[in-house]
Amino acid sequence: MLTQEKRALTYIGKDPLFKDIIEKLTTDADLKHSEKIYILSCAILILKHFEKDKRYTSYADFAYSIILKYSLCYNDYTPLFDYSINFGFYPIAKTILDQELLNGNLINNCFMDIKLDRFNKDNNYVETLEQYVESK
Fold first, then answer.
1. Phi, psi (degrees; rounded to nearest 5) at 114
2. How many CB atoms lie within 10 A of CB 96?
3. Mean pLDDT in runs of 10 for the chain (136 residues)?
4. Residues 123, 124, 125, 131: is their CA dihedral positive or negative?
5. Is the Cβ–Cβ distance between 93 and 85 less than 8 Å?
């Protein structure tokens, strides 16, 4: 981990509101609607910083952990699905679709399922984007 990266994450962790919400999320305490919005917004901001400099991989990892924990705690898999699609974690996205964990537009889910099928390796498993690129 780069020094600047570590410093920034440490600084974020000292914010009282962020610290309180992360503690609630990791201990499975109930979050208010405004706290859910806040923590998911933080995850998006952390990802935006990662997109500016791909060397900050711990940013993507941290944002993923926030989104994963949120999705599992609140059975709201839309953020995890979006993350998975945008970062090439197609096996996760495919599982979310197959288990019908998304609420919402079924036609969009069908189209996405069709798109994800091209990453299906011999009908045995779904490749990540990185695996798909490497196999070509």
1. -65, -45
2. 20
3. 74 89 95 95 92 89 96 94 92 91 72 75 79 80
4. negative
5. yes
Question: CA–CA separation, 48 vs 90, rounded Å?
Answer: 20
And the tokens for 108?
């969009």
Q: Which of 82, 74, 71, 117 is nearest to 98 (CA)?
A: 117
DSSP 46-71: HHHHHHH-TT-HHHHHHHHHHHHHHH
pLDDT score, position 108: 67
5 contacts 56 by C-beta, under 8 angstroms: yes
Q: What are phi and psi of 125, to 5 degrees?
A: -160, 160
Q: Which contacts of 28-37 are long-range, i.e. CB under 8 A and separated by 24 or more positions?
A: 28/73, 31/74, 36/70, 36/74
Burial (CB count <10 Å: 0-12, 13-18, 19+), residue 78: middle
Residues near 54 by beta carbon (within 8 Å), at least 6 away in sequence: none
